[in-house]
Amino acid sequence: MEIYSPAVTLLAITPNAEKLIEEAGRTCYLSLDRITEGSEANFIRRCIMNGHHSILEHASASFRVLGASRAFTHQMVRHRLASFSQQSQRYVNEEEFNFIIPPSIAENSQAKAIFTDFMEHARITYKKLRELSIKKEDARFVLPNALESQIVISANFREWRHIFSLRLEKAAQWEIRSVCMQMLKILQKEAPSVFGDFIIDEASCTARSNLM
Fold this sequence. Notes:
This protein is an alpha+beta fold.
């Protein structure tokens, strides 16, 4: 099946994340008596501006990503401070794989025909190898980067900020920008004091912090 855009779901997030971050941060200064309702917002923003980012590591979020390619996951897993659980081509039968079509190809009818023909050829080749009793771990060598690869990603808030600062730049690849933009929008709702400084440009699918 052809897929044209990824989908992101928040699986888990640290409860009362911003209050936890404030309490951890104020422990450094023994200013716990200054914690009040809503005091976390200014405290967290000030810490981010001052480069005191380690306190953000006390909170984390986990996402499931569907409809993204292995080209995307190969980029994402380079963020080694995050944790990943990814669909395995050693154990999953890929005879009926889904694949992602890049926009530049989808918009060009001739290019799309060439692309989809190649995907079908890869599918047939994989299936023939499996019919010859070739193990999935070996038959997968013919599979393209365009294949959908489901993945769960967990990281602390500091690492998410780092990921967004790199992957929501204009120079980043379109697919990883699309995924990270969805993640950022979710985290801006869940933890606005931590992620609200990222200014989103919908037209270019980019974002940049106005505090750093």
